[in-house]
Amino acid sequence: MGRRSTGDVPALVERARQGDPRSVARLISLVEDASPLLREVMAGLVAHAGHAQVVGITGPPGVGKSTSTSALVGVLRRQGRRVGVLAVDPSSPFSGGALLGDRVRMQEHALDPGVYIRSMASRGHLGGLSWATPQALRVLDAAGCDVVLVETVGVGQSEVEVAAMADTTLVLLAPGMGDGIQAAKAGILEVGDVFVVNKSDRDGAAQVRRELRSVVALSERAAGAWTPPIVMTSADRGEGVEEVAAAIGSHHEHLVASGELERRRRRRARDEIENLALTTLRQQWRGVHEHAALDDLADEVVHGRSDPYAAADRLLASLEAPR
Amino acid sequence: MGRRSTGDVPALVERARQGDPRSVARLISLVEDASPLLREVMAGLVAHAGHAQVVGITGPPGVGKSTSTSALVGVLRRQGRRVGVLAVDPSSPFSGGALLGDRVRMQEHALDPGVYIRSMASRGHLGGLSWATPQALRVLDAAGCDVVLVETVGVGQSEVEVAAMADTTLVLLAPGMGDGIQAAKAGILEVGDVFVVNKSDRDGAAQVRRELRSVVALSERAAGAWTPPIVMTSADRGEGVEEVAAAIGSHHEHLVASGELERRRRRRARDEIENLALTTLRQQWRGVHEHAALDDLADEVVHGRSDPYAAADRLLASLEAPR
Domains (ranges, CATH) in chain A? Predict the structure, then answer.
């Protein structure tokens, strides 16, 4: 692998487009490594992306995200659709093609050539989740996936962040977790396009549905806007999972018909471009060889000789000067 | 208040420097509102800041952060030191001088003129926590606080973010929460300069201490580096809190003697300058009137006519052209 030269990128991209799993895996590794080859990779992929429906799967720990994701993959595969799964763990140092511990249920799909499963760590990434995820999504999209499921393992902000990258966001809850208000606080309920109450055979499932119904009823929506459905499931027994797939399909139709899909994708592209541009600037400012300007300015602020606003102005002014 | 003109800023800054609590409160409100007056405020304050020791207080919900903070304020006050408390809740829409519900214990200090207590919401802020907190810290610092305690109410990433702004980070744990591994996963243990096992009269406290000891023993440290002490407390009865204050003091001495204080503060200033500069750029790029460039570029990426790297390059190039 270490011997691959830049000249291999077009061939690698071509093999990934034809669905070769090793090439797809290699391209996602390039994303994880923030490889300089990514510019060339993305230039080769961008014209072939835009087909996949990106579905974010969020919810508090313990609601059965992994089981639900696996069951959903099963239903989508029986419909003949190609599926990508990206399990993003912003706090994990582990990554790669290996299946993480609690992802063991996904192994039933591990040998299916119509499914790509990938765990991705984003910790330590310059720009983190928001930098790496859109690029990994583009790889899976261009490789011919009809649906890409993005599951976050993290909590709080990272879930909201991933939702911003999805066309459709599934929010999973379960009874007996006391999570109604908790989840609302973290902003998870606000981003849900489809709500799933998993473990619906347990006590309290009806209560969770009632709470969700009032949240949905109380939230402000424009005329003609999408009303998030609430689906009851027992993912470990496969119950209700076809309804989840149907709800995802309906939401996609709504997104297309209303023009919202285009708007969401434009917003996503805007975020991605902005993040790449800001990352480039950050690298320049922190680069030891190119600009030591930021260090000098920090020194002045620490010793009270400059305030941070004036320092920021000078940092920006250095961009506008010829380099 | 609404009638205040820009000309009042120097007077306001001067009153805050002399410790007038209303002026301090007003300046922190300007930070929360991202007021355009902040440039002038920070220019006036920067030469008077740099004295306070900033202590971050983090830990999972339920360990007794609020009680410990309050008890620590009591000890520091008995030592004659002026104390600021900044309670940061990244998920809360509430803010202002009002004491939040679970901060009710802090009321014993509410009438003490040597203590400033402030709850701050950062949700919705452009740049969030990392934008607002350093500026609020500078206000409390310049107002003459010897120690500023920063307590996060949030979870996960926000706690690590606040730790990055502190000179000394206190990590609180408690028995019976099953949080040993959880906390480690969120990266909290890595940022601890002082560990506190609160509720140390409960079963399992010794076990938490043992786990922490192995974490400390296993972590790699350079020769002469600080070894985080582990302090057992029962904050609600005031037990062990003087030892916490002593550990904070020792860590401060270590920071000064090793030159690490200067390094941490320089890094903090660098982050702050960078965040201000990037926020300015983001505002420009998203500004409807100034640059619609980002929207056009996003369109090209969505339709596969440009890849995100090329688009980011063009966005940056637009900065270097004369405006």
Answer: 13-258 (3.40.50.300), 273-320 (no CATH)
